Amino acid sequence: MALIGKLVVCGVGLIGGSFALALKQAGAVERVVGVGRNPATLARAVELGVIDEIAAGWRDALDGADFVLLATPVGQLDAIMEAMAPHLQPGTIVTDAGSTKRDVIEAVYRRLDPHLATVVPAHPIAGAEKSGVEAGFPTLYRGKKVVVTPLPENRPDAVERVRAAWTACGATVVEMSPQDHDRVFAAVSHLPHLLAFGLVHDLAGRANAELLFSHAASGFRDFTRIAGSHPEMWRDICLANRQALLAELDQYLAELAYLRALLLAGDGTRLEQLFGEARRARDAWAAQFPPPSTAE
Amino acid sequence: MALIGKLVVCGVGLIGGSFALALKQAGAVERVVGVGRNPATLARAVELGVIDEIAAGWRDALDGADFVLLATPVGQLDAIMEAMAPHLQPGTIVTDAGSTKRDVIEAVYRRLDPHLATVVPAHPIAGAEKSGVEAGFPTLYRGKKVVVTPLPENRPDAVERVRAAWTACGATVVEMSPQDHDRVFAAVSHLPHLLAFGLVHDLAGRANAELLFSHAASGFRDFTRIAGSHPEMWRDICLANRQALLAELDQYLAELAYLRALLLAGDGTRLEQLFGEARRARDAWAAQFPPPSTAE
Q1: Residue extents of the structural domains in chain B
Q2: Nearest CA of chain B to the CA of A2: how many Å?
């Protein structure tokens, strides 16, 4: 018997689509039903074999559902939970793939209060700069991390089923508090995205933008790759994790003010020292966490 | 007959070593002589076949030399030019691989005044985050750009010989003024390096650095790759191009101040618009300038 009988995926883009494909490849799901705001995307998902059928609405989708993954931008989750609440059956496991957790959990308490035992918030840490249903692939999560931030009300077996689903996708599951999650990812993910978007936006607005871009090379390519990320998704992340992101941005601005002072003073000794410390930390990290072998 | 008879490479690291290897592979050089501050590096360069012999000093190196590449961090070039000046013979072509050009050209006028016809400043645009003689490989420059910033005093045939050498390495040569060069690379290379060094340095100094780094994923990996670059080289670049880099940093700080205000105001509409503009510019650039097919 498969791990999941009827799987409902709300938002069949890169994240939701790859989850469905991975579970199918692992033989861990019997039937995948798609829900979403865009009928054309859902139709394409059927064509691509990402989902097996399209639900007419939440009543239809949740009828006999074992497991629901909410994989839309986080800004939509409150309204989605409100819409699904009347039709959610006891025992159906619900999880999400939102990049922020405190705001998602607030929405869970607001909208799904009778179901707190079985709603398990989570966040798969997988590159999402190529978005859309066409971008999904079954090995996206292989070797990646998934952070689960259980609610105190969660039933242990509900948490276990969410862990098992992600493990079946090839991911490693870790647990964190929502507060830690949001602070950690503000630093290592949300801030870098903001910085990359900002740099490309800054340069693109220059009178000599064409000249500048024509001389950008491999360093620029890697540094700005995440500026190709999904604008709506990142708008939602920035708003949802605004407090932690502002704190990180302010700390980074202090770092830049220090670097600016070193530059202004022509302090080569301290610049070289700082660059050396950064290089050693980056090298140590890269040695400890080599890239997963699948395409990122 | 080979393009170059006796080639002298000063600084046999990634850049100088790869130049020698590329010319050898192209059959464009007869003999490569290495000069440098570190005897062990030079000995290793002979073992690796990067150079054929080690010069005892500049007199020895420049005796009968056809072509000299200066491939050290730019902060050393003034002293190097001073040391080589008494031994430089008329007709020997001299070029450099410095990432900044105005400061190098100032040193040329200061140290090599009798040789202005044959000293042609240049800058190969090739990733240099892995440094050292072991990192060199013959295809580093294939499909890459080399910017040549000729002096008004340069003989056309001297410029042509520098272009021909880089073309033999598989690179595409473009000409720019030193002023344009330094401004353009402050924006698309020097500033991103400073920002990446700064982010890693900032995070590495936190009490919870280990927790943060353990959750960094592929976006962080790419964004911070250039923070693994050579500290001395980047110290020199920052100091040499300080003026243009400060101007770029200040413009970027204004961009971050704008982003901070949007975050603080919770202005999702403008955030999404800015991210969308950045994404479109990044996508258009990536489509127009696909990565070279060789390893970057």
Answers
A1: 4-176, 180-288
A2: 30
Q: How many CB atoms lie within 10 A of CB A52?
A: 17
Which residue does chain A place closest to B174, by CA atoms? A215
Quote the ipTM score: 0.88
Q: What is the pLDDT of residue A94?
A: 98
Q: Do B291 and A209 touch (CB under 8 A)?
A: no
B235: closest chain A residue by CA: A272
Domain covering A4-176 assigned CATH 3.30.420.310 in the classification: no
Q: How distant is the Cα of B88 from the closest Cα of chain A, in angstroms?
A: 30
Cβ–Cβ under 8 Å, residues B197 and A278: yes
- The reply to whether domains B4-176 and B180-288 share a CATH topology is no
- Nearest-CB residue to B235 (from A188, A275, A277): A275
Chain B: give the shortest CA distance to residue A283, in Å. 6
* B281 vs A contacts (CB less than 8 Å): 200-201, 203-204, 209, 213
Report the alpha-carbon distance of residue B26 to residue B90 in Å, rounded: 26
- The whole-number pLDDT of residue B81 equals 98
* CA-to-CA dists, residue B175 to A213, B90, B150, B172, angstroms: 16, 24, 8, 10
The reply to whether residue B253 touches residue A256, judged by beta carbons under 8 angstroms, is yes
Task: For residues B165-179, give the mean pLDDT.
Answer: 97
Backbone angles phi, psi at B26, to 5 degrees: -80, 0
- Please give the pLDDT value at position A128: 55
Closest alpha carbon to A128 in A195, A183, A72, A170? A72
State the Cα–Cα distance between residues A221 and B145, nearest whole angstrom.
15
Q: Which of A228, A235, A273 sits opposite B271 (nearest CB)?
A: A235
DSSP B12-34: -SHHHHHHHHHHHHTT-EEEEEE
Judging contacts by C-beta atoms under 8 Å, the chain A residues touching residue B255 are: 198-199, 201-202
Beginning with the edge strand found earlier in the chain, give each strand of the sheet holding A29-35 in spatial order.
Answer: A53-54, A29-35, A4-10, A67-70, A93-96, A119-120
**pLDDT value, residue A294:** 45
CATH of B180-288, picked from 1.10.3660.10, 3.30.70.1230, 3.30.70.3400, 3.20.190.10, is 1.10.3660.10
Q: Is the distance from CB of B162 to CB of B148 less than 8 angstroms?
A: yes
Q: Which residues of chain A have pLDDT under 70?
A: 127-129, 292-296
Report the distance separating Cα A275 and Cα A267, nearest Å. Answer: 12
